[in-house]
Amino acid sequence: MPTAITEAKFFACSQSTELAEKMVTAYGAELGNIITSTYSDGEFQPSFEESVRGSRVFIIGSTHPNSDHLMEMLLMLDAAKRASARHITAVLPYYGWARQDRKDKPRVPIAAKLIAKMLETAGATRIITMDLHADQIQGFFEKPVDHLFASTIFLPYLQSLNLDDLTIASPDMGGSKRAYAYSKALSSDVVICYKQRAKANVISHMELIGDVTGKNVVLVDDMVDTAGTLTKAADLMMERGAKSVRAICTHPILSGNAYEKLENSKLEELIVTDSIPLRQESNKIRVITCADLFADVMHRVHHNESISSKFIM
Q1: What's the CA gap between 250 and 90, in Å, rounded?
Q2: Of 5, 86, 168, 171, which has the fewest Cβ atoms less than 10 A away?
Q3: Which residues lie across from 147 on neighbouring strands?
């Protein structure tokens, strides 16, 4: 006889409580009770205040810096494992340290692989995440990974704008695959920015491959950190005759003076998800929630249903 499907339980890491509440509301459930004790030196200990024995547990939390966010996820995974949860799914709307996915020079770590091993060692039996910086990070895990694409929520918004002369742009060579996928879905042209970096987060030179004259341009990327690339690309495209420039970035890290750069740039609009909470509001930033996407996928995972319809790209 098939095993009866038990009720799923949902818990949120502190940095993603607002998003987790949206997810479980869309799912039709409630967040479980977690209490976190903190010592005077900053050490903390999360505690499940209800039984999870034999349950499928979803632990929701992005692992963006600082490292306490990752540590909280690891501790909660370990607690669920030691409390005899049957399945433990780490729901990571944003997978931190993903930019360190290879050795780009001698004597550096591959942090994305290390994080994968840590999550599995802590107790994760499945990973659900969205728009990884590099697709090959899925291969760093020995457990199943459901890699969702934010295009499933961005494309309907773009189509609702009814932009004529639409052109999709990649802010760098590495994002060309993502740009081509959007252009195929929208039947639009593609242009690519070629950039050279003096060092991390510092662009020394940028060139545009393609024509944007008279075009409404939409830049697509997986994340926006300092906003240096996006704002420089937007200004360059407007100089080259573009009608307007928007940007779609899944993960709004927006560190340093990113908000100031956005306000002073020729970028008309930055469209992001709520995978990471914004540090401040901005008239140029539009947030589209990813809660419904994750809720649907968690429901399908829990009921052993296909999620292939969520992979547009």
Answers
A1: 19
A2: 5
A3: 129
91 and 61 in contact (C-beta within 8 Å)?
A: yes
> What domains are there in the chain, each with its CATH number?
8-149+291-308 (3.40.50.2020), 151-288 (3.40.50.2020)
- CB-based contact 33:49 (threshold 8 Å): yes
**β 44-48/34-38 pair status:** antiparallel
pLDDT in tens, the chain (313 residues): 455 667 899 999 999 999 999 999 999 999 999 999 999 999 999 999 999 999 999 999 999 989 999 999 999 999 999 999 999 999 999 999 999 999 989 999 999 999 999 999 999 999 999 999 999 999 999 999 999 999 999 999 999 999 999 999 998 888 888 999 999 999 999 999 887 665 665 555 788 899 999 999 999 999 999 999 899 999 999 999 999 999 999 999 999 999 999 999 999 999 999 999 999 999 999 999 999 999 999 999 999 999 987 765 5
